[in-house]
Every structure is written in C-alpha cells, then in structure tokens.
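We were asked to recover a plausible sequence for a given structure. The inputs and outputs are reproduced exactly as logged, with field labels preserved.

PROBLEM: sequence recovery
POSITIONS: 609
GIVEN STRUCTURE:
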C-alpha cells in the first residue's frame, strides 16, 4: 500500500512537471519580453538590497562616527547628502523600472491567455457531439473562461517572480553574512519551522484548489442550465425548488472557499509570529552587543530591515505555490478539454473524395449505441436513391433521430456501413459531408446578429443577392420585408423576438442558400398558426425539389406524398413502403395512422359541438 501511494505521488509529480512545461511552452514566443522583465528584476532586487545598507552606512559611518569624533561634522553631512541622493535615485529608478516590468509581464500574460482561449475554443468546435451530451455547457464555459484566467497569474507572477525572490534571498544572506556572521546564524535559526509550515501548507492547498475548481464548474453548469430553462421554471412555479438547489451548490462552493481562507488565515499570522520571534531575539542579542560596544547600531538596524525583507520572498514563495497549484488544477482541466479526441476524420489512406454528390444513401446492417452494448439501432438496412424522399416514423425512442445523427456524421456506428453514393461516410471528411447536407430541424437555433448573418451563417462566399433569393424561395421574405431593418434587422439570442414560424422559415432559407444535395428535416409545423403553416408547407415542397429528402415525421398526415416511408420500432425496421402500401398491410403504420386520425376526428367533433 505504501509503495502504491509513493508511486501515485511520483506519477502525480511527474504529471505536474509535464503540465508546467506545457504551460511554459506558451510563453516561449514571448521569451524576449520575459528576459527583459528578468533583467529589470535583477536590477530592482539590487535596488531593494541597497537601501538598508545605505541607511546602515549613514548611521554607522557618518552619524555615529561624527558623534564619536571619528570624522568631522561637515564630512558626515556631506556623506549623508550623497547617500540621500543615491537613495532618492534608487527610489525613482525602482518606480520607473517597476512600471515597465509590470506592464511587460501583464500585457504578455494577457497575450498568452488570449492564445490559450483561442485554442481552447477551436478545440471545443472540433469536439464530437457525444462530448456535449456528457458535459454541461456551464462546465465547458468555466474551463474556457475561468480556468484560462486562473493561469494568468502563473505567467505574470511565477515565471519572473521566482527568480526575483531567489535573487533577493541570496542577496540578503550574502550581505548579512558579510556584516555579521553570528547575527546571521541566529536569524536563520527559525528556518526549520518555516520549512515545516510551508510543506504542510502545500499539501492542504492542492486539495482545496481542486475542490474549488470542481465546485465552481458545478455552479456554472447549474446556472447555464437553469437560465436556459427559465421559462419552464416560471411556468411550473419551480422557483423555490431551484433556489434551494442553487443555495446547496453555492454553499458547497462557499465552504470550499472558506477552507482556503482559513488556511491562509493560519499561514500568514504564523509566519508573522516566526518573524517576530526572530526580531525579538535580534533585538535582545543585538542590544546587548551594542551596549557592550561589540556591535554598531546601524548594523542591527540593517539586520532588522533585511529580516523583514527576507520574509517577503518566503511569503511570495508560499503564495506562488498557491498560484501554481491553482494553475495546475486549471491547466489539467483545460488540457483535458483540449486533448479530448476530436471528431474522427479519415486517415490519408482511407480518405475518399466525392467529385459530385448525387445524394444516394444506404445503410448496410448498421448497429449503433450511445452507450456500450445498449443498442439503439439493431441491424438496420435500407437504401435511398438520389432525389428520393423518405420519411422515418415510429414511437419516441425508436431510433429515428439516431439515423439522422449517423447520416450527418455526428456519431459513428459501431457495426455495419453507411454509404453516400457508394462511399463509406467514415472515409469522407466531415466538412465535405455536411457541406452537402441541409438541416431543417424543429428547434431552430438563431445566433445573435442580424437576419442576413443567420441565413449566411458566417460564410462570406455567400452574397447578399443569394441570401435574398433563398429567402424569397423559402417564403421568408414575407416577414423579413416587414421588419424595420429588413435583412439587417437585429436578432436577439436564440431569436426570441421572432415567432416559431418565422424562425422556421429562416431555417429553410439557411438550408436553401447552400444548395445541398441532401435535405434532412425534423417536421416543424407543430404549434404553428395556420397561415404560417401554409407558407412552410409551400416552402417545403420547393425545398424538396431535386434533392434527396430525409424527414422525421411526427404527424403522419404530412408525409403521405413522400416516395418511401420507413417504420422504425425498437431500433429495427418494422415496415417499409409508400403511404398506400403500408395502409394496405394494416400493420404498425396502419395502427399509428388510425390512432392519429381518430384523435383528429375527436378534436374536430369537440370543436364543432
């Protein structure tokens, strides 16, 4: 057990070293700025070390010497004047160099963080859809925003600050030993206590920082989910329940932060106590030696100043370790996101180019599961000819949406083959595959921006004329022309100021403007007013012309004119044929259709009554 624990610690330390080296690699392009900052640090350290020595010289070699008659009063005044000018120059120089150093470090640190955020967001966009199924949006936001920001202090404080503290501590020890060896040894007597406290702090701080980051991710995930679902929360009067949930999560985050505060609350006073003990010993021992004439007052004064300065780097080391632990926790989370396996792409040997996509799709004995061995699709086989329209029907959970997800390459099947014009889609680049697929889903997502941007979807190769043409063809111009800004009219987040029907018409225009060979639709006429539904149905007919069309049908009355209907039940194909053929079989499709028809009839009778 002890060996396992030792191996775990060794592996963790090795992992930490690799992580720190990887984080440091992002600073490599800016090495010149860090080198300049380091040079300024050496000079600033020298300035800091010189000031107490100047005061010591002024006291012992001028004031005390003049009082004892060793030198003339005028000579002492002249010496103090020169030392005062040097002291003032050091203070002014420290201010100017300190400003430049701070500016260099902070601006360089922000550039590195910007690079990290750009890379992280780029990686997020390449993640498979399955990743977002398992990880809350709030947690991803925390990683991209908060964790990268937590790394900023490592670049601005640790990289150069470490050398600054080392220079100061070495410089102080050298000067102290030069001035008085015995006083220096007495001053260092408490170092074992400091070392013990630092080691104890290091162990505890790592645990606490890991918990803080975890709690923060949970908090952000909860906020993201509940802000998105605020309409449901208010509709079902869930405010109190959700508040209680938030309070519980927030309290756990607060408790983790409190433990961090307590740890620091113990550490800093403890360091102050140790420093006070050293100073009291110095005053006692030094005072006796001054009285007996064995020590000069200026030397004792300088020692007291240097001891105070000596503890500052120690505190910086402790706080720096704190920052480093935070950076390690944040870096682990960030690189875990960035190193996550992206969407699978074909290798150079596997990749096949499609010169012209015709839109033929074939499933050959396809098996698929979101989780291992929990099969959603079981040995599914069917063929869709180019330009053919096909609808998938079945109960909720039958596997209809999974078929669409596989065709679009959002997931990969575990068994069997999915072919596009005879080519396995696993051998086609995702960009090429999706470029030829137009998605019209029931839940239309609109980005903040304007109407034109939401139709173009940031593709600068699409002209305004093409956007207007697609909008007219999709009947979206009927409402766009009535908007105050027309195609430049602002669109709020998720298109909340537009009706469901208007958003759907925009999705049609969005699909039309790229002129896809394959059209994938999730029927979207539910809960839409009759007038808008008429426009949508008319647009659908135009949209389907000359394209392979695949639709998930919820209302069977809308798919009677498709070429083929495929009935899915429990992950398997139960029936296949045209509307009339399937009704004639009086099987599952017939039962589904009659059930919906009966419900419609009952609704009409109630309305007429």
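RECOVERED SEQUENCE:
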């Amino acid at each position: 057990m002890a060996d396992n624990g030792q191996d775990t610690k060794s592996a963790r330390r090795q992992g930490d070293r690799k992580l720190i080296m990887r984080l440091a690699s992002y600073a490599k392009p800016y090495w010149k700025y860090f080198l300049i900052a380091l040079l300024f640090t050496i000079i600033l350290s020298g300035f800091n070390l010189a000031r107490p020595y100047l005061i010591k010289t002024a006291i012992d070699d001028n004031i005390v010497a003049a009082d004892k008659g060793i030198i003339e009063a005028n000579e002492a005044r002249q010496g103090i004047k020169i030392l005062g000018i040097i002291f003032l120059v050091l203070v002014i120089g420290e201010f100017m160099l300190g400003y430049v150093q701070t500016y260099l470090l902070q601006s360089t640190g922000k550039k590195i963080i910007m690079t990290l955020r750009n890379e992280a967001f780029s990686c997020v966009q390449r993640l498979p859809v399955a990743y977002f199924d398992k990880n809350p949006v709030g947690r991803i936001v925390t990683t991209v925003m908060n964790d990268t920001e937590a790394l900023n202090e490592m670049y601005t404080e640790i990289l150069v600050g470490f050398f600054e503290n080392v220079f100061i501590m070495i410089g102080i020890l050298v000067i102290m030993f030069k001035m008085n060896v015995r006083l220096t040894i007495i001053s260092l007597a408490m170092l074992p206590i400091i070392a013990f406290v630092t080691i104890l702090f290091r162990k505890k701080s790592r645990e606490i920082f890991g918990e803080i980051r975890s709690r923060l991710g949970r908090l952000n995930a909860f906020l993201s989910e509940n802000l998105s679902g605020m309409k449901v929360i208010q509709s079902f009067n869930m405010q109190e329940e959700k508040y209680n949930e938030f309070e519980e999560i927030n309290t756990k985050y607060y408790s983790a932060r409190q433990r961090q505060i307590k740890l620091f609350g113990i550490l800093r006073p403890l360091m102050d106590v140790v420093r006070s003990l050293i100073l009291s010993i110095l005053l006692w021992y030094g005072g006796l030696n001054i009285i007996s004439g064995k020590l000069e007052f200026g030397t004792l004064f300088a020692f007291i100043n240097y001891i105070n300065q000596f503890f500052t780097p120690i505190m910086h080391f402790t706080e720096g370790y704190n920052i480093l632990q935070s950076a390690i926790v944040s870096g682990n989370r960030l690189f875990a996101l960035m190193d996550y396996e992206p969407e699978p792409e074909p290798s150079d040997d596997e990749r096949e180019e499609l010169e012209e996509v015709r839109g033929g799709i074939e499933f050959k004995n396809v098996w698929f599961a979101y989780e291992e061995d929990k099969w959603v699709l079981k040995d599914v086989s069917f063929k869709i000819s180019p330009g053919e329209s096909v609808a998938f029907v079945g109960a909720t959970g039958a596997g209809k949406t999974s078929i669409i997800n596989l065709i679009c390459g959002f997931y990969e099947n575990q068994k069997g083959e999915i072919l596009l014009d005879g080519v396995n889609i696993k051998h086609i680049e995702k960009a090429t595959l999706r470029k030829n697929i137009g998605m019209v889903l029931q839940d239309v997502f609109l980005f903040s921006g304007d109407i034109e941007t939401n139709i173009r979807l940031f593709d600068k190769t699409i002209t305004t004329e093409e956007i207007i043409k697609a909008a007219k063809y999709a009947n979206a111009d009927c409402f766009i022309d009535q908007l105050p800004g027309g195609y430049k009219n602002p669109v709020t987040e998720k298109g909340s100021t537009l009706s469901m029907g208007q958003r759907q018409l925009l999705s049609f225009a969005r699909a039309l403007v790229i002129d896809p060979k394959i059209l994938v639709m999730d029927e979207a006429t539910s809960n839409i007013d009759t007038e808008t539904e008429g426009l949508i149905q008319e647009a659908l007919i135009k949209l389907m012309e000359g394209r392979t069309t695949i639709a998930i049908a919820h209302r069977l009355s809308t798919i009677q004119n498709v070429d083929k209907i495929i009935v899915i039940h429990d992950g398997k194909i139960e029936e296949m044929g045209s509307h009339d053929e399937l009704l004639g079989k009086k099987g599952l499709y017939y039962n589904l259709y009659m059930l919906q028809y009966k419900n419609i009839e009952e609704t009409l009778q109630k309305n007429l009554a």
